[in-house]
Amino acid sequence: MSGRTENTPSTTKDEAPKVDDQYVHGLPMSILFIAQCLVAVLIALYMTVIATAVPSITAHFGTIEDVDWYSAAYLLSICSLQPLTAHLYNLFFLKYTFITFLSLFALGNLVGALAPTSAAFIVGRAVAGMGAAGMFNGSMVIMVASFEPSLRPRLMSLSGSMIGIGSVVGPVIGGAITEHAGWRWCLWVFLPPIGAAALVFFVQRIPEQMPKASPLSVVAQIHHKLDLVGFTLFSPASIMFLLAMSWGGSRYAWDSATIIGLLCATPVTVGLFCAWAHHRKDRALIPPSLVAKPVILWGCAVSFAQGSSWIMVAYWLPLWFQSVKGANPQAGGLMMLPTCISQILASVACSILIKRIPYAPFWSIVGNVLTAIGSALLTTFSVSTTSSERIGYQILGGVGRGFAMQMPLVAAQEILPSNQISIAAATLFFFQYFAGAAGNTIAKTIFINALGPALRRYAPNVDAESVIHAGATEVFKMIGAEDRAGVILAYNHALTLTFVSNLEKSFKSEKVVY
């Protein structure tokens, strides 16, 4: 597991047949890369843009029962479809496969924007997640096929940092749009940039890394070429576990038949999937020989920890700014700028420094250490935390994520043969977003279970259930001035406990990386 970014025997073997003019250069390369960055921003933005619009959405549809599904439907689709989309890129032409997933993403936005019911809105989120799953993998595969090896580490780091930007600015944009134009425009605004990105990919030359048959001949043999049995086992296992984490302690009690059934069925289904993958070997949805490679095992551990840390910070730190510091949604998003800017600058710096020390695990260790320190400092947040403290703590975590998040992909694309890159990218993305989805639902459970007792302790005169359902943006409108300080203390207590769960993941990841 060298993770080196110089030519190794394995990379030389794959890239020797290529000649320089097979890559994209000059202005076309810049335009293609900008389009890829735009796609990364849109994927992450779609995750968080409705966070501040949820009260308006629930008021419009007249129900709060489906709130969990507004975020879960998108992440469930992304996680469950990741490996399957990787195989599609190995079978079909890169350009048209990517545009197809872009179209699915646009369709999901359109369905959500026009949704007459809450159920239709959830369907739109799920369809958009199907498109996003393929956009993740496709962007990395196209980058490997189109850009020279010497440029890839820097460009991968930069494009990866765009995901951080999208997730951070999502609540700011969503809050502003909802306030001035209505929540449906949080989805309408995605369509023009999606169209612009699709146009760039359509007119741009995108090299193929391997010979491919005509689409019609591939479709005729699709049941032989795709591991559909593996997919029917992998997808339900992912969904059942995430549903158990999402519903447990909120919609259903942890000892309810529904949660116990989901938690029992998940390992059984995972066991069947592993047995089937062992039987299929290299033709499996996730080939065991690929997962057994040290670079992938290490990459999955890093992706899991960093994915959980990134999504939890993106979701829960703005809530701390709103509930404890009294910021509105837009201001809360702006307070996240230290995280966003430091992550971008660290990604750029790491893409330069990795040429001096061309060993990806070293940079992931540095990144994970800084992420763990930043996560530890977040648990010390209190009502009296100063601006300099919150900015400094965010910078530490942002620099850590900037160093570590893209290192698994950088190492994988340097070491693996071209026909395994899409599957490796899908596996790494799965662990990143599965960790984010699971970590976020666990954090939500911790927060809700901690907030009720904290409210009864610090603000005994308020109705705890009403405060929990009101949300941070509305709670202070419904309580008296005499209860305000107590509610703030209760929110701070519950939120710092969610930051503790994030800290535990960071330290466990550090042990695995070492």
Automatic annotation (TrEMBL):
InterPro entries named among the record's database cross-references: MFS (IPR011701), MFS_dom (IPR020846), MFS_trans_sf (IPR036259)
Alphabetical list of Pfam families matching this protein: MFS_1
Chief subcellular location: membrane
Membrane topology: Multi-pass membrane protein
Protein name per its UniProtKB record: MFS transporter
GO molecular function: transmembrane transporter activity
Key word Membrane present: yes
Domain named Major facilitator superfamily (MFS) profile: residues: 32-508
Regions that span the bilayer: 31-57, 69-89, 96-115, 121-143, 155-176, 182-203, 228-247, 259-278, 290-313, 333-354, 361-381
Cellular localisation: Membrane
Keywords recorded for this protein, A-Z: Membrane, Transmembrane, Transmembrane helix
One Gene Ontology cellular component: plasma membrane
PANTHER family the UniProt entry points to: MAJOR FACILITATOR SUPERFAMILY, MULTIDRUG TRANSPORTER, PUTATIVE (AFU_ORTHOLOGUE AFUA_8G00940)-RELATED
